[in-house]
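Format notes (please read before filing issues)

Several people have asked whether sequences and structure tokens are stored in separate files. They are not. Every record keeps both together, in the order shown below: the sequence lines, then the token lines. Line labels are part of the format and must not be stripped during preprocessing.
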Amino acid sequence: MNTVIAKLKERGFFAQCTDADALSKLMDSAPVTFYVGCDPTGPSLHIGHMVPFFAFRHMREAGHKGLALIGGGTARIGDPSGKSEMRKMLSYEQLDANAASISSQLDSFLGGFDGETAQTVNNKDWLANLNYIDFLREIGSHFSVNRMLSFEAYKMRMETGLSFVEFNYQLLQSYDFLELYRRHGCRLQIGGDDQWGNIVAGVELVRRIESAEVYGLTFPLITTSDGKKMGKTEKGALFLDPAITSPYDFFQYWRNVHDADIRRFLLMFTFLSVGEIESLCAPARNPNEAKERLAWEVTALIHGNAEADKALAGAKAAFGCAVGDAYGGGDKSAMPHAELERSRFEAGYNAVDIFCDAKLVSTKSEGRRLVEQGGAFVSESGGELAAITDTKAVIGIDRLNADGELILRAGKKRYCLVTVK
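Then the structure lines:
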């Protein structure tokens, strides 16, 4: 078996392949050009998008050539795969702006698009001005509606309503593979397992039109050990853009994963050696060490070492407060922060209001539930956290420490450093 395919299997990236043996032989014989696509339906990728791009880095480091396809054309209609309803249509200008933002994120994560071992392409270049009649004659004639409807993505949407616009998506993605084969000699498409139907359709289209053997490889859709979709937080998806998900919140997500997920996530979302990962996950080791290493590694890959160090310091400060260690000597400035009016503390700050104003809850009703269920904590002047269980309780000026600060905690994991103005 080809070494990079063996590595992908070892690290948990392998779900389905159109012909693993033939692909392995091809990759042994010469560098293979492969591609992975993503549609710019938002200004930022989230961690769920990144599994194929971690595999991209492994493959590039093994000497293969990667194409990051930005779907500026396909995003104009939307992919029905995994969606219960049609995507909102965005303006072409917004899609172009999103494409530029995502391309920048990928350039940073992948180590730079050098135009040789890695480059970005946009399918808008060949889809935007297609002649529809010619496209139907030359491409549409190779597709069976019955076969398309047998794929899970379409079967699911048939129950809730599938627009004709979305029905075209598989043809366009297949055409992408054909164009990339013609333009770049691309022989392999990789992606999430929800793309299996579209990838197989592209493989078959290239074979029929060009009489060429190309391949498809998919990766598992990642869920946590309790069955939840990986990368989902109380605030939504775990985005790469620090303006949407702060590096601290990003770090905290990984720091608080379930013990059962540590090894799997270290294998997939870091580039540590398998041997080092096995050492971190040894039964005799404290799992918190591995979680902290996981959090630092992934945060450094996405946001850089400095932000990972800052997030780690903030986490240590929050943890120190949680155990009554006067903020644990960590860097409080790295914690999520809220500046509130001093006069509110002097008058007596209602417990529900302070959690709302610090953005730890989005509504007062959510704040009341947090307090009533024992999930609201406020630091004493010495730094120790104390539970607040009465929705009518007030937080006075005496709760502030010598620096005029206090810490709030919502549930087990979300913290906010409050200062007064």
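For reference, the curators noted about this record: Residues 322-328 have pLDDT under 50 and may be disordered. The chain has three domains: 3-219, 232-321, 337-420.
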